[in-house]
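User: I'm preparing a small set of examples for a lab meeting where we compare how different chains pack in three dimensions. I only have the primary sequence for this one, and I'd like the structure in token form so I can line it up with the others. Please keep the answer compact; I'll paste it straight into my notes.
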Amino acid sequence: MPDGAAVPGHGRRPPAGNGALRPGGGLRWLAVVATVTMFLVVVAGALVTATGSGEGCGRSWPLCGSPEWTLQAVIEFSHRVISGIAALAVVALAVLAPRRLGGRRDARWLAAVAVVFLFLQAGLGAGVVLWGQSDAVLALHFGISLVSFASVALLSLRVLRGAAAPAGRAGQEGPGSGGHGVPAVLRRGLWLVLGYTYLVVYTGAYVRHTQSSLACPAWPACGTAWEGAALVQMVHRLAAGALLVGLGILVVMARRHGRELPALVRGTWLAAGLAVLQAASGAYVVLSRLELAAAMLHSSIMALLFTVLCHLALEAAGPAWSLHGGVATAAGRPPSSQPGPAVAAGAGEPASLAGSPAPASAPAARSSRPAGAPSGPA
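Assistant: Understood. Below is the structure token output for the 378-residue chain.
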């Protein structure tokens, strides 16, 4: 009986599925708006730092208390406006997306991380304006923004792709299970590189907030003694170089499983390519003497690289966290292990209806018996 057909005495049969609803056009547009505005928040934050506009609105927050609208005040207040719009879109997406995706575990976690880090970022920004912070604390701001952006982008990706059936039992296969063929060493390598990338992000943000970007006049060598601000700059360069090596190793490891994991291989190649572009944009920052476009490009590429690495780490974590998995049903079972619509309907029906044999099958069996054959057991 096709999905949606009428069941005697019970109205229409519920359609087969896993409890997830295909995201509508409105939710998909919300996902796009949330992702774009969060990316603008990251870029605008980098612009505030690059132009020294953090105190453009004085010691007032969230409104701008500057007596006149200087360029720094406009840049700082524009960043706050964009952050406010992004907050509304992200919170709405975090509330609606997991429900429309059938309670996927990965969607719930991504929504929670996006909202928590969004408000952590806003709180840190407010604290910087109202009370001031050290350079070491200020350097945390960019990394927090990246975590929030990556969470929103990956949640939006799941909305745009729609609900997908999990490859394994939701709630049983998570990080560390390797339930869908990703070798444990490769999985650990991806998570290790992701965590190390966050440290590289922090060192880069610390370079900007300590105004050490031009402490080394040359590239890739420093061109001066490694001390003070030059040492800060070279620590970041060495860390970024080690990241390139780590990504190269990941590419080699992933290629050994290219036939089984082609998407993961492509993802590691993409991450390595973005890392090369990131290094090139870092050279552009130094050689252009801190040109604004160079600084913005440097931050934008890092946001994309961090998001790609987060995606790869989740793909390797297990079916419950993968883009094509993670559906959690009301019973905690994947669709393949749940009773079908006919069984579910029969559970509440009278015995005369639920347990009655199919009338068409018995005559068909009798008609296939040769003439004169005995009807009883042989």
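A couple of notes for your slides: The mean pLDDT is 79. The CA atoms of residues 308 and 355 lie 53 Å apart.

User: Perfect, thanks.
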